[in-house]
Backbone:
């Protein structure tokens, strides 16, 4: 069976930098850190040590028709906005996409760590005080389900192809892109809107906090955290937003004269089978090597590594060891989480979109806050200031709790 | 509470919960075809009315015959009278 070539033809983002891909690019180009204090909102939670976050923008939710809106939480509004942006980017107008597809040939795969943590919290707050099921409303379950963003985006846009949700915490979004890549290259879909979406909630930051994985030493200096690969890193800063890409059959894209950002060359996802929370460099190495192998790409052909590096003590060191093992100190590496915080399941696609912007503009954005590379993150080519450089081929990493790893390889191409 | 007061509170639910403009809230308006509600909205409506008037509607067989806003107003007021809930202020949500 001949596999299809798969290209990226549309981008959309809602991030802590604002609404739109240009806001994301401009924020990164300007070296902005989106981390702010959450002291006023969260200090009443007992034993919450991390009082920082990277919030996304508030959207005008009323632009969504009421009967779509009622089943949507903040993360679905983010995913919906980003998906519409991606369609508008790919087709000139978000409304014209049906002209380009037979029924059922456009899919939608969007991942998130959980269903809406805000809706989950509200549901239990309503139900538990009196143990009264009658307190529940009819629509909150649609916000709580794990495929809430994927199904809401599909409903809003009238998508009738394959609709899936990849729920693997911080690897959710990159797994969505990988799953979309598989569906398109197998010929099961002509195109798939894919990515991730997340929303902030104290229960999310708190879940990392209890594991000593959330940044807690910079509550009085939020703009100095997180610090990927840095000696003084102390954990993640939770963020929110959505990143959505349109992956499309190359021939389908060429026939309609589409703008092409890059071709997806290869992808791999695997598990460590080892530890529920700690990264395992052997598994990371296996993941990246198999992604490269599936892309028929040698390590020396990679021009840039967009790291997962979230600023955790253990995770960053394991990723640095992985990159050192495969790429040595030749290939430029940076993490964008110093700017964006960790948008968890949305981080893979958001950072992939940012990487495509770097590829387009021939510039590498640095790892913000990397003032003193840690000794356990040494031996790789850290980028600490913007670097002008042609980028043809990249690898994007995402790693998650549960030992879940994902890596995607893309290359710049012309559609003709 | 008289029926006009009850109708005003029902109208407020339609306006706030279901974003229906006041000028569309005519007694002959069909809940689905004219006011744009659907089956999930009806579930939400039952919950909102129960909370607003302190009455139990969920298991009512008579509710299944409701088609128009006028039907709903009549049904709700009858339930208020039967339950005596209209004698006391609305429960706080």
Residues:
């Amino acid at each position: 069976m001949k596999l299809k070539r798969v290209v990226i033809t549309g981008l959309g983002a809602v991030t802590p930098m604002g609404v739109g891909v240009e806001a994301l690019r401009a924020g990164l180009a300007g070296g902005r850190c989106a981390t702010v204090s959450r002291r006023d909102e969260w200090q009443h939670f007992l034993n919450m040590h991390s009082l920082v976050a990277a919030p996304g923008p508030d959207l005008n939710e009323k632009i969504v028709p009421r009967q779509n809106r009622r089943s949507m939480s903040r993360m679905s509004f983010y995913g919906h906005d980003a998906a519409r942006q991606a369609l508008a980017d790919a087709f000139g107008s978000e409304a014209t996409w049906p002209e380009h597809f037979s029924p059922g040939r456009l899919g939608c795969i969007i991942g998130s760590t959980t269903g809406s943590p805000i809706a989950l919290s509200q549901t239990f707050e309503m139900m538990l005080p009196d143990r009264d099921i009658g307190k529940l409303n009819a629509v909150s379950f649609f916000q709580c389900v794990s495929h809430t963003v994927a199904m809401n985006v599909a409903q809003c846009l009238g998508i009738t192809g394959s609709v899936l949700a990849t729920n693997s915490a911080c690897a959710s979004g990159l797994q969505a892109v990988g799953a979309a890549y598989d569906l398109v290259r197998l010929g099961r879909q002509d195109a798939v809107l894919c990515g991730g979406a997340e929303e902030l909630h104290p229960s999310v930051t708190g879940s990392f906090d209890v594991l000593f994985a959330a940044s807690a030493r910079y509550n009085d200096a939020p703009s100095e955290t997180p610090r990927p690969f840095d000696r003084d890193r102390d954990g993640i800063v939770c963020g929110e937003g959505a990143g959505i890409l349109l992956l499309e059959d190359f021939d389908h894209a060429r026939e309609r004269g589409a703008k092409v950002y890059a071709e997806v060359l290869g992808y791999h996802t695997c598990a460590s089978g080892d530890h529920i929370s700690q990264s395992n460099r052997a598994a990371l190495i296996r993941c990246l090597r198999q992604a490269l192998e599936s892309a028929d790409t040698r390590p020396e052909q990679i021009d840039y590594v967009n790291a997962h590096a979230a600023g955790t003590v253990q995770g960053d060191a394991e990723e640095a060891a992985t990159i050192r093992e495969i790429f040595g100190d030749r290939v430029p590496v940076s993490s964008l989480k110093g700017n964006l915080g960790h948008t968890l399941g949305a981080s893979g696609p958001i950072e992939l979109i940012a990487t495509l912007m770097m590829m387009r503009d021939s510039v590498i954005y640095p790892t913000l806050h990397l003032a003193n590379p840690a000794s356990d993150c040494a031996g790789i080519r850290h980028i600490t200031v913007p670097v002008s450089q042609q980028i043809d081929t990249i690898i994007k990493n995402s790693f998650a709790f549960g030992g879940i790893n994902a890596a995607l390889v893309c290359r710049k191409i012309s559609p003709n | 509470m008289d029926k006009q007061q009850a109708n005003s509170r029902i109208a407020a639910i339609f306006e706030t919960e279901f974003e229906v403009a006041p000028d569309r809230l005519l007694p002959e308006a069909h809940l689905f075809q004219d006011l744009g509600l659907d089956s999930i909205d009806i579930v939400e409506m039952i919950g909102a009315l129960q909370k607003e008037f302190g009455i139990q509607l969920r298991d009512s067989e008579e509710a299944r015959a409701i088609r128009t806003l006028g039907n709903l107003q009549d049904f709700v007021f009858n339930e208020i009278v039967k339950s005596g809930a209209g004698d006391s202020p609305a429960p706080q949500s």
Chain B touches chain A through ten residues (CB under 8 Å). The mean pLDDT of chain B is 89. Residues 61 and 75 of chain B are 11 Å apart (CA to CA). The longest helix of chain B spans residues 3-17.
